[in-house]
Design a protein that fits this description.
This protein is an alpha/beta fold. It contains seven helices and eleven strands. It has a single domain, classed as Rossmann fold.
C-alpha cells in the first residue's frame, strides 16, 4: 500500500549506494518527492524508475561529482524553480580513502576525502541554503561520522574531514537558526551494506572484510534515523545523533567476539 504523498521535496547527495540509497528508499516509501544525486547515471536512472513506480512519487536525478564546483553549480542550477522548493537537504556524499599513518599517506587520498567530505558539502549547501533563508524554512541534515567526534589510529585525514563536518554543522546552525532553518547531523559508527570499506581499500575485498566478527549498523538503520530527524515538529531540532552498534562502544573499542 502506498503512503500518501507529503508534498515535501528532499535532495539527497550520494544517493546511488549505501546510506544514501537507503535514505532514498525510506523517504520514497514515506511519500516524499526526491532529487537524487550521484556520479553514476545508470544507477540513478534505475533508482528513479523503480521507486517512482513502486511508491508513486516524483524523482528528479542529477548526475555530478560533488568535488567539482562547476558541475555542482550547473546541476543544481538546472533545477530551475525546484531549487527554491527543496524542504530537506541531506548532505550524504562522502568517502574514506586509505588507512595509513600520516607519514605514509597518499596525498591523492587526502584530496579526495577533503574535497568530497568537506568542499562537496559546502558547494551544495551554498547553492540551496539561500532559498531556505528566503522562505524562512528548511532543514539541512549532514551525514557526519563517529570519526567526527573521536579519532582513531591511521584515521588522520578522514577523521579531520569529519571533524570539519561536525564543526561546520554547528556553525551553520548559528548562521541559519535566526532564519528558521534547522541544521542537524547524524554521526554513525561502523555501517555495513555500504561501499565504504571497499572504496577505502581500493576494492581489496580481503581488506574490506572489517565487519565479520561483530554486528555493526546497517545502512537502513542510519536512514531510519535520518528520517526520524527530519520528521520532528518544527519547534524541535535534533542537533546530532551518534549511532553505533551495541558491540561498538567507541571508535577504539569494539567487541569482536562474533555476531551476537
Amino acid at each position: 500500500m502506498r503512503k500518501p504523498k507529503t508534498n515535501k521535496l528532499v535532495l539527497i547527495t550520494g544517493a546511488t549506494a549505501g546510506i544514501g540509497y537507503a535514505t532514498t528508499k525510506v523517504f520514497a516509501k514515506k511519500g516524499y518527492d526526491l532529487i537524487i544525486c550521484g556520479r553514476r547515471k545508470v544507477r540513478l536512472e534505475s533508482i528513479k524508475i523503480k521507486f517512482q513506480v513502486k511508491y508513486g512519487i516524483n524523482i528528479k536525478i542529477l548526475c555530478f561529482d560533488v568535488r567539482n564546483k562547476k558541475s555542482v553549480k550547473k546541476a543544481i542550477s538546472s533545477l530551475g524553480k525546484m531549487q527554491n522548493q527543496i524542504d530537506i537537504l541531506v548532505n550524504n556524499a562522502g568517502l574514506a580513502k586509505g588507512k595509513d599513518p600520516i607519514f605514509a599517506g597518499e596525498t591523492e587520498h587526502w584530496e579526495a576525502m577533503m574535497n568530497t567530505n568537506v568542499m562537496g558539502l559546502l558547494y551544495v549547501t551554498r547553492l540551496i541554503s539561500p532559498f531556505m533563508v528566503e522562505r524562512k524554512e528548511g532543514h539541512i541534515i549532514n551525514v557526519c561520522s563517529s570519526a567526527g567526534h573521536e579519532v582513531y589510529p591511521n584515521g588522520n585525514v578522514y577523521c579531520a574531514s569529519k571533524h570539519a563536518v561536525n564543526a561546520l554543522t554547528a556553525s551553520m546552525r548559528l548562521d541559519l537558526f535566526k532564519h528558521n532553518v534547522r541544521v542537524s547531523q547524524i554521526s554513525p559508527g561502523h555501517v555495513e551494506e555500504t561501499e565504504f570499506a571497499r572504496v577505502r581499500f581500493d576494492g581489496d575485498k580481503n581488506k574490506a572484510k572489517i565487519y565479520e566478527d561483530f554486528y555493526p549498523l546497517t545502512a537502513k538503520d542510519v536512514a531510519k534515523s535520518i528520517h526520524y530527524i527530519a520528521t520532528q515538529p518544527k519547534h524541535i531540532t535534533i542537533q546530532d545523533i551518534v549511532l553505533m552498534g551495541t558491540q561498538q562502544a567507541s571508535n577504539n573499542f569494539i567487541n569482536r567476539s562474533g555476531r551476537s
